[in-house]
Fold this sequence. Notes:
With about 210 residues, the protein is an alpha+beta fold. The chain has 2 domains: about 1-90; about 100-210, CATH 3.30.70.60. It is built from 5 helices and 4 strands, in the order αααββαββα. It has a 4-stranded antiparallel sheet with strand order 1-2-4-3. It is extended.
Amino acid sequence: MAFEALKQTLATNELQAELDKPIVQWGLFLSLCIVLWALFFQPILDWRSASIDEISQAQLQRSKEKSLLNSQLQLQKSLGEYKNWLTLSDKAYLQGRSEGSATSNLVVILEKKFKPLAITFSSRRFVPAKVIPWVGEKIETRWVLKGNADNLIDFMHQVAGHSPELLVIDQAEFRRVTSEQFELSVNIYAFKAMSEKNLLSESNRLEALQ
């Protein structure tokens, strides 16, 4: 019995000596840190990472919902504007069933603007009408007008802001004739409405040629 007790005592002393070694103590400390990390810190980090992912996904979803809402509002606005345009579009076309009558209508509109401004014309040409897909017949006139600079500019502003018919100024060029007189070479065109059937067939035909 005494021998067994002595043996156990020696073993205990050897174990204690091993435990007292610095390298063993550092090993035990590192092992404890690993255990604490696995039990406490890693779950906290995992939870934090998952929470960040959830927040990011929620923010992304809210961003998508906001973008969709903005798109819907923009679509509703565009549809409203399109309906208003449909209501006003008929008035934007020149009156007249034929190309000649539409051209005459355009000339009357322009003369009512430049004659009160003491503007005269030295030449005018009528360009054959052509179909603009999905719009109508383009009625174009080319003018060479004469007058003082202020009146010619005033005429340009009146044409650009004309309503209800839509008038378009194209290729305007000023040239001084005398010290007070200028010459304005300008193309002005508008559109004549077409029947829905003719506009559809001509538009499809012209697009097929492109």
